[in-house]
Amino acid sequence: MKIIVTGGAGFIGSHVVDAYVKAGHKVVVVDNLTTGSRKNLNPKAKFYKTDIRDAKKIDAIFKKEKPDAVNHHAAIAEVVKSLRDPLPTLDVNVTGTVNLLLAGGRYRIKKFIFSSTGGAMYGSPKKIPVSESVEPFPLSPYGLSKLLGELTITFYAQMYGFDYFIFRYANVYGPRQNPNGEAGVVAIFGKLTKAGKQPIIYGDGSKTRDYVYVEDIARANLLALKKGHGQTVNIGWGKEISDKKIFETIARGASYRDKPRYAPYRKGELYRSALTNAKAKKILGWKPKVKLEEGIKRTLATL
Ligand SMILES: NC(=O)c1ccc[n+]([C@@H]2O[C@H](COP(=O)([O-])OP(=O)(O)OC[C@H]3O[C@@H](n4cnc5c(N)ncnc54)[C@H](O)[C@@H]3O)[C@@H](O)[C@H]2O)c1
After folding, report:
1. Which of 239, 261, 263, 279 has its Cβ near the most Cβ atoms within 10 Å?
2. Any residues with CB less than 8 A from the CB of 16 and at least 6 apart, and which?
3. How far is CA 46 from CA 13, 41, 49, 72, in A?
4. pTM value?
5. For the chain, how far is it from start to end, CA to CA, in angstroms?
6. Domains along the chain?
7. How does pLDDT run across 177-203, given as a tens digit for each residue?
């Protein structure tokens, strides 16, 4: 197949590109390199340095490449930033997505795969791990932009008659995650502790997240080329890992012996989060494989 991967120079997108190339697919990356980097690019993929909001350029790329599928990972993916300054996030994550859907419809793609969020989609759910049947209730413009992205996909897929599949990821970690961003705690703590510097935990350390290793995410995206039709699935372990536990696991791996510094909670952040994975297992035959200790070890080795 020929697949356009947007955000293919970023953290998750570049691992998806690697998995697609390895499986023998032709890959075209569209990325404007705002948070992505050329060094993440797979040399076998064709690269267009283009903004997904640029209608003319996106049209020209689709016209020339005639992709079978689009895997859409390009986004502004920062919760706190979206609360501070919402318009850029909504512009890239909604208008940019619509732009790709319009081009996909015009040039008759067969499938559109989307990277949505589980962590920022369900508000503060009563039951954890949370399943896909829980009504979306985003608490940040970032979460809202992903929900709107999902809706535009179902709308245009129906209008043009192409297939789609939506992932709602938990917290993804692994090599190539930006250690200078606001999230990506494994990359941030990993870089700091390896340099002997003290990490900050926002809150008292009891806040939880569900951590999935990026290669497991890439494998789900590979499965979704063939399986899954018009569905939305969570991708997670269904397990809550506290900030304290993630710090301790990283500190152990990095031989860091000091304590973390504690600071007040940041606005807009969820207190607890974990996602069920039964639907992904049923539809894709996917379940996570790389355990936390192992994933952290592999990540630390790259920092
Ligand atoms: N990292 C996570 O834990 C997580 C969780 C849930 C969902 N996601 C989603 O997965 C996707 C990838 O996230 P990531 O963590 O790899 O982030 P990332 O910042 O590493 O990747 C995003 C990529 O999109 C590119 N990009 C941004 N704006 C663009 C634009 N206007 N035009 C073209 N390219 C643009 C960036 O340069 C970057 O390469 C995002 O859609 C994000 O919302 C990530």
Report:
1. 279
2. 5, 8, 71, 73, 217, 218, 221, 222
3. 14, 9, 10, 16
4. 0.97
5. 33
6. 2-171+213-235 (3.40.50.720), 174-210+238-300 (3.90.25.10)
7. 998 877 799 999 999 999 999 999 999
Among 43, 26, 33, smallest CA distance to 9 is for 33
Active-site residue 142, yes or no?
yes
- Sign, CA dihedral 270-188-214-47, equals positive
Residue 35 Cα to ligand 1 midpoint, Å, equals 8
Instruction: Please tell me the distance between residue 45's alpha carbon and the centre of ligand 1 in angstroms.
Output: 18
Do 203 and 139 touch, CB atoms closer than 8 A? no
Q: How far apart are CA 268 and CA 248, in angstroms?
A: 25
- DSSP class of residue 38? G
Closest C-alpha to 82, from 153, 157, 145: 145
DSSP-assigned letters across all residues of 206-274: --EE-EEEHHHHHHHHHHTTTS--SEEEEES-S--EEHHHHHHHHHHHTT--SPPEEEPPPTT--S---
- State the Cα–Cα distance between residues 60 and 57, nearest whole angstrom: 5
Mutate to test the pocket of ligand 1, among 14, 16, 30, 35 (most ligand atoms within 8 A of CB): 35
C-alpha 266: how far from chain center: 21
Three-state DSSP class for residue 167: strand
Tokens of 162: 């192409």
CA pair distance 108, 88, nearest whole angstrom: 29
* Cis peptide leading into residue 141 (ω within 30°): no
pLDDT digits (tens, 9 = 90+) for 21-37: 999 999 999 999 999 99
Which of 135, 205, 220 lies closest to 170, judged by CA?
220
Nearest to 14 by CA among 33, 2, 24: 33
* Ligand 1 center to 70 CA (angstroms): 15
Ligand 1, atom 11: closest residue by C-alpha? 73
